[in-house]
Design brief:
The chain is α+β, with helices and mostly antiparallel strands and 477 residues long. It has 3 domains: 126 residues, no CATH class; 127 residues, Immunoglobulin-like (Sandwich), CATH 2.60.40; 179 residues, no CATH class. Helix content is 33%, strand content 23%. It contains 10 helices and 19 strands. The strands form 4 sheets. Strands 1, 2, 4, 6, 8 and 10 form a 6-stranded mixed sheet that branches. Strand 13 and strand 14 form a beta hairpin. Helix 1 packs antiparallel against helix 2, helix 3 packs antiparallel against helix 4 and helix 7 runs antiparallel to helix 8. The model has no long low-confidence stretch (mean pLDDT 85).
Length: 477
């Protein structure tokens, strides 16, 4: 059975990115472990299934460690229950796994047998991500008891008779990311590294060409060609050329999508195909913030685009992301005004803050009449809403806040989001407490908070507005 690696390998990439993140959440790691388990099922009885299953179990143990670290930091009662569960799972894992890859994962998890500190969690998670995993393309389906009753089909080629081309791309010398940002209107280097498992008799060349539904007038991508090599397989080739995105995208538009297909020339036989695996698809973001200012503050614009890409990688529907971006532009501008123009020179209560934000948002032509006030959701009333996107407002008049402090308000917004059938909410916090020190950089106030639930996490985009600052001259007295 041919398993198209493009269906399974994204789970491996997501695993590495999550384990290497600064502070991955336990629920997010569990969601990835589920993807890995599904990938293991796709390989059936093939040896690769054991490797993917082992990685799934290791990520589940990593999720327990992430929960333990979070519980210790938030001073939860009996926080060590998560560590005890991780110990037990690691012990069972060591007893079960017999493959070479499983043995390497077992060695990485050995520190759990001793006294483990919270500071070691990040090292263990990165070590799991760093264990090399064998690349497998073929699976072996489970035995079908009813096969003799089904219509007979033409036999498929044996695995050794199928040619597999494993692709890897680099853009401007950097490995292509899950969503790669490109400056439109500029030439960029595109490098293809390809490994071919087999070269059929009669084929002289192997050609790779781009396939896309994007208008052909908006892009120019190269074709790559390699000639019949000498020696024994596998064969590895590297080819370089130029690529161009001709026009910028609107910042709410979906990423441009391209796939590279492969074909032997001349084609040896009608049944001779090339299975393209690895990094078959390129998702490219051609947003040019320098030509379409989003918020009026360049550093904040870059942060908005980064959060947009994070939401896409998290699987948030495009419609929700689109509505969020329409609201985020004016709210981020308001966040900038709070720090640069002293929009909030004195302490104000939440009701006054809500009235000001409402007036500011209604003045934006993209929002206007679509802004709702005090909508009833999940047994409570939201402050503001835009097309079902809940906007929670808070005002702190006594204690100075930093961006991490906004997390304590996020669960309320997450509850409203779930009550609205969404996984996304917005939180605006005004810190108008008296201050003696200067403000922090505006872009630092824009953060993405992950709220853990029993199921999928809810994401809350948080903005911390700064007010009630002393005059700059006061700092020199």
């Amino acid at each position: 059975m041919n398993v198209v690696l493009g269906q399974a390998f994204p789970a491996r990439i997501a695993t590495i990115e999550a384990l290497r993140a600064a502070r991955p959440a336990g629920d997010g790691l569990r969601a990835i472990a589920t993807q890995l388990a599904k990938a293991a099922d796709g390989f059936g009885r093939a040896p690769a299934a054991a490797d993917w299953g082992a990685l799934s179990k290791a990520v589940e143990i990593a999720a327990q460690l992430a929960d333990w670290r979070d519980a210790v930091d938030s001073a939860e009662m009996d926080a060590d229950r998560h560590l005890r569960a991780a110990h037990q799972r690691a012990k069972a894992f060591a007893a079960e796994e017999a493959s070479e890859f499983g043995a390497k994962l077992t060695a990485v998890l050995e520190p759990l047998a001793a006294d483990t500190s919270v500071d070691e969690v990040a090292d263990i998670l990165r070590a799991i991500a760093g264990v090399p995993m064998p690349v497998a393309v073929f699976g072996e389906p489970e035995t079908d008891r009813y096969a003799r009753f089904r219509p007979q089909q033409k036999p498929r080629p044996k695995p050794e008779d199928v040619s597999v081309a494993f692709l890897e791309f680099k853009i401007d010398g950097i490995p292509a990311q899950s969503i790669h940002s490109l400056t439109p209107g500029e030439l960029h280097d595109l490098e293809l590294i390809v490994s071919v498992s087999r070269w059929p008799v009669g084929a002289e060349k192997l050609r790779f060409g781009p396939v896309s539904v994007e208008p052909t007038s908006t892009w120019d991508f190269p074709e790559f060609e390699v000639s019949r090599p000498e020696g024994d397989p596998p064969y590895t080739f590297t080819r370089s050329s130029r690529m161009l995105i001709k026009v910028p995208q609107h910042f709410t538009a979906r990423p441009l999508q391209f796939q590279y297909a492969a074909e032997f020339q001349p084609r040896p036989s009608p049944d001779e195909n090339v299975v393209v695996a690895g990094q078959r698809t390129l998702l490219l973001d051609g947003t040019d913030a320098s030509k379409q200012a989003l918020t009026g503050y360049p550093a904040v614009d870059a942060k908005v685009i980064g959060i947009r890409n994070e939401l896409r990688n998290a699987g948030i529907p495009e419609r929700e992301i689109h509505d969020l971006l329409l609201v985020l532009r004016p709210l981020c501008n308001l966040m900038g005004q709070a720090a640069t123009s002293k929009r909030y020179p004195d302490a104000i209560d939440e009701k006054t803050f809500q009235s000001d934000v409402e007036t500011f948002l209604r003045a934006n032509y993209s929002i206007g009449a679509d802004l709702e006030i005090q909508a009833e959701v999940a047994g409570g009333r939201t402050d503001l809403s835009f097309k079902g996107l809940r906007i929670e407002l808070k005002s702190e008049r006594k204690k100075r806040l930093g961006p991490p402090d906004c997390a304590k308000y996020a669960e309320q917004g997450a509850t409203y989001a779930v009550g609205s059938g969404k996984r996304l909410a917005t939180l605006c916090v005004l810190d108008c407490s008296p201050k003696k020190s200067p403000p922090f950089p505006i872009e630092d106030g824009l953060t993405l908070i992950t709220v853990k639930t029993a199921g999928s996490p809810v994401l809350v985009v948080s903005l911390l507005l700064q007010g009630n600052f002393p005059r700059p001259s006061d700092h020199s007295r």
